[in-house]
Amino acid sequence: MSFSDLGKRLLVGRKLRSTQLGETLLPKRIALPVFASDALSSVAYAPDEILLTLSLAGMAGFAFSWPIAIAVAVVMLVVVASYRQNVHAYPSGGGDYEVATVNLGRNAGTTVASALLVDYVLTVAVSVSSGVQNAKSALPFIEGHEGWIAAAAVALLMALNLRGVKESGTLFAIPTYCFMIGIIGMVAVGLIRILIMNDPVRVHSAQYEVVGDPAFTSFTGLMMVVLLARAFSSGSAALTGVEAISNGVPAFRKPKSKNAATTLLLLGVVAVSMLLGVITLANLTGLRLIDPAHSFYTLNGVRVDIIEETAIGQLARAIFSGFPIGFYFVVAATMIILFLAANTAFNGFPVLGSILARDGYLPRQLHTRGDRLAYSNGIIVLATLAIILILAFDANVTALIQLYVVGVFVSFTVSQAGMLRHWTRALKTETRPGERRRMQRSRVINAIGLTMTGTVLIIVLLSKFLQGAYIAIIAMAVLFVLMKLIKRHYDAVAEETALVPGEAKTLPSRVHAIVLVSKLHKPTARALAFAKASRPSTLEAITVDVNDEETANLVRAWDEAGIPIPLKVVASPYREVTNPILDYVKTIRSESPRDVVTVYIPEYVVGHWWEQILHNQSALRLKGRLLFTPGVMVTSVPYLLATADVAERRLARSDLQGARRRR
Asked: Per the domain annotation, does 404 fall within a domain?
């Protein structure tokens, strides 16, 4: 086994056969952390974003945190109920893209796909960046290095996901359940202490007053509506990731649709409970957060600057004040789940990319499974784009969150419209009363979902457009155009290469074989023998005269060897090799357009990469040019050097050892 193969095996593990795909399917207990970690982890930053936005109105704004949280929770439950209809109606894994394409047309499907792809990249960037920000509560030395630490975390997640969905899911399940236990436990302990034991638990920031943005000093009328809309749209980040389960139905064990729908229900109940619990505790403990660019803290009327913790960090520190293990458990679990929340995107993006590649909207390479039956190319592309985004914004969650949510609500809205049309069509042909009632109930659920998600989309667009959402919209538009161009290219290639009836039986008039000769040696002899064995109509060898003395010696050696194939010398006054050969081949083609010219090029096969630099450069340039010449075929005639033979035996031994291990 070579060092490169050894490194790959250590990174991704042993190869899996295609027949082992069933072994990678997920039970519900593993599917929940795999596909729902994004939506669950939003509990760690959605409350922060609500409170940060409300801080622009000063102390008066925080009173609206719980109504906004309830509104977000209601929308989430409606979306979860809507997507339960999706997974039953479209269990193939296309999710929103398939729903939109089938019911609303290809442009709608491409719009949804571009929105989801952008949102998946943002999911990784926001989740990991938020994890780094939360980690600062326990690890202050991270300050100033957030961007690079977040980028390293994304690279680690990429490596773990390259090992396969089941392995990464099993690995991520424990931290996800720890986060759920930590947050629910913190909420339970906090409510018991405050409501039952009458313990006046207060967070550190409760002692400060908050002075907001002068633009929102008068928190009434239009300004109040604008700010509440912004806070609601920021809190709606809690809904991201809900659609991932509908894209991942094929990864579930049978019955796939039922298991996916159950997992969706569990996701909705747990996420809503944690979100409302955190906001309730924030209100009971007097928690404040500020946006340093627009608001600040004061103590007894004097402005103060403090190192601010996240909402989860402040609550955990206050509630577990006499139990530091509880504080560190919650902070550590939150930090890890935010890193792992990106795993939802690492499962959604590659699957969607594979479906789009199958349909011709993305490069075909994204449709191929890797050694571990995961879509490796999609995983690598997602990680690369997320790292670029993280470094560009230096892992700033507040800046990145403004780009977020738009894409997912575009897909939500279009998908619900597609489902509404799906049920309307189905009802036209269904006659069974029981099935009709079920379809009518599903249509009502999707209609409510369409109304709510469409309303939220409008609010998000109006409130976040100038804050950065326009960047996400531009990215979606660019990706939409790019996918349409890729599709047009693949369609054009398919049309151009389609076989015309009877064309397969058409033969060329004659075949002209040309063997390129630079020296008279074994590779040349092999190329001549191979060309002769193919029985062309005409066969000749040509050499380019770039040095008179060397050419004369070659002609003399050719004659002395008694080779029955004529050697033609092509003049090259400017000492070029490629252009004289191209001109000669084009001359033959122009004289007989219905003939085929086959050019045989002797090539060395070497065993080391650095040897490749020393050989075959002229042959590579010539092949590149000949490939664009109509009616010309290029045949490489390999000659294995000793180093290639050693490399071949080494590879054969590693393959044999691998076969023995598999047995």
From this structure: yes
